[in-house]
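Q: Structure for this?
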Amino acid sequence: MGGEVRIELEAGHFSAVHFIAEHERCEHLHGHNWRVRVGVEGELDQRGMVVDFLELRARMGEILRKYDHRVLLPTLNPAVRVEEEGAGVRVRAGNRTFLFPAEDVVRLPVVNVTVEELARLIGEELAGRLTGPNLRRLVIRVSEAPGQEALFERALR
Ligand SMILES: [Zn+2]
């Protein structure tokens, strides 16, 4: 076995709005600039690369673009009801009701839109988009505030 190398990329950020249902402070609608770093481990290919930074940045851009300037909603939380209403989406969360334009909303298959779940979703999506027999592992690090972040790690292949 040859050695493995991990490359790391500051992949960018997205600005979005969320809330955490039934959380004392975070149930109020608020936003973050979520910053995303990605690490990919693998053996070096014939070019001397684990993965081309340009390609990795492009894949991450495709993923993060979908979240940018959107309202992120959970679809798996029994305390959050999301319904179509004309050209809008009505959201009931506890005793709060919101009405958003449908195009501003991104529904995510999570119980709550937390930094942990975002790291996992981004990692799983990137895993589906990265190909290469030399790739072994990826790490996604998402921060929602300085010093407050989640790290998701999974094997590739
Ligand atoms: Zn938050």
